């Protein structure tokens, strides 16, 4: 099922009725910036989500995303067709509280449907580099799993635009990660289980136990 809000205000209201992709890492306790209890308070209306739209990193990502999406289209036009709908919300038919808004909707030349997720990141230290070492950072991986759960599609591609400084000079690298649904189905099932338990706590207004971030 697809919901089609016409503007950001409608989209934000609908987000309160379920779990979006950016919430997935928070639900399972891998978000460094928000706890599962804070998210529960937002979803139950106890608190209002912080407006982070004016933060520099968020603002940069917002303005860079259209260009990175078009660059992906140009780089991979022989492999994928790319569509984009700013406010579409793809909803899991069996778990209607699981939904996702996508940075891009891919179709490969064989007709398989996939997700494009775009990330802009500024690396400040070695610990942040380690999160990208031969893998996707946990919170982004959870988001991809959630998007696959919401859409039911076959694959996802994360395109990361990574900025870092070397000897005081800004450098940029691009990375591309492909996730096949068949390879991560067990992780998708696990995430659905955790998100179902979380949403039950929201609907019953039962405060969940705090999940501490692993150090």
- Report how far apart the termini are: 38 Å
- Secondary-structure element string: EHHHHEEEEEHHEEH
Strand content: 15-25%
> What would CATH call the architecture?
Alpha-Beta Complex
Please give the domain count: 1
Report mean pLDDT, rounded to a whole number: 92
Question: Number of helical runs?
Answer: 7
Give me the secondary-structure category.
Answer: alpha+beta
Please summarize the sheet with the most strands.
Answer: 5 strands, mixed
Rounded Rg: 17 Å
CATH class: Alpha Beta
Describe the structure concisely for a colleague.
By secondary structure, this protein is of the alpha+beta class.
SSE inventory with pairings:
Blueprint lengths: L1 E2 L4 H8 L8 H4 L8 H8 L12 H20 L4 E4 L5 E3 L7 E2 L3 E5 L4 E11 L2 H5 L7 H14 L3 E12 L2 E12 H24 L11
Parallel strand pairs: 6-7
Antiparallel strand pairs: 1-3, 2-5, 3-4, 5-6, 7-8
Helix pairs in contact: 6-7
Walk me through what this model shows:
The chain is an alpha+beta fold and about 220 residues long. The protein has a single domain, classed as Lambda Exonuclease, Chain A (Alpha-Beta Complex), CATH 3.90.320. It is built from seven helices and eight strands; from the N terminus they run E-H-H-H-H-E-E-E-E-E-H-H-E-E-H. The strands form two sheets. It has a five-stranded mixed β-sheet. Strands 1-3-4 form a three-stranded antiparallel β-sheet, with helices on one face. Strand 7 (about 155-165) and strand 8 form a beta hairpin. Helix 6 crosses helix 7. It starts with a strand and ends in an 11-residue tail after the last helix. The model has no long low-confidence stretch (mean pLDDT about 90).
């Amino acid at each position: 099922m697809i919901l089609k809000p016409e503007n950001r205000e409608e989209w934000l209201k609908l987000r309160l009725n379920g779990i979006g992709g950016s919430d997935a890492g928070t639900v399972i306790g891998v978000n460094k910036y928000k706890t599962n209890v804070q998210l529960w308070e937002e979803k139950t209306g106890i608190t209002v989500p912080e407006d982070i739209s004016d933060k520099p990193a968020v603002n940069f990502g917002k303005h860079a995303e259209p260009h990175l999406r078009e660059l992906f289209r140009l780089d991979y036009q022989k492999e994928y067709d790319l569509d984009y709908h700013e406010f579409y919300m793809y909803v899991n038919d069996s778990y209607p509280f699981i939904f996702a808004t996508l940075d891009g909707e891919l179709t490969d030349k064989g007709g398989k449907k996939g997700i494009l997720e775009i990330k802009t990141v500024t690396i400040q230290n070695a610990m942040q580099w380690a999160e990208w070492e031969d893998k996707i950072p946990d919170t982004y991986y959870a988001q991809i799993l959630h998007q696959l759960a919401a859409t039911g599609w076959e694959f996802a591609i994360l395109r990361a635009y990574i900025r870092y400084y070397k000897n005081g000079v800004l450098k940029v690298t691009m990375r591309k990660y492909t996730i096949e649904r068949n390879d991560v189905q067990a992780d998708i099932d696990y995430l659905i289980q955790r998100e179902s338990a979380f949403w039950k706590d929201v609907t019953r207004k039962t405060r969940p136990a705090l999940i501490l971030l692993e150090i």
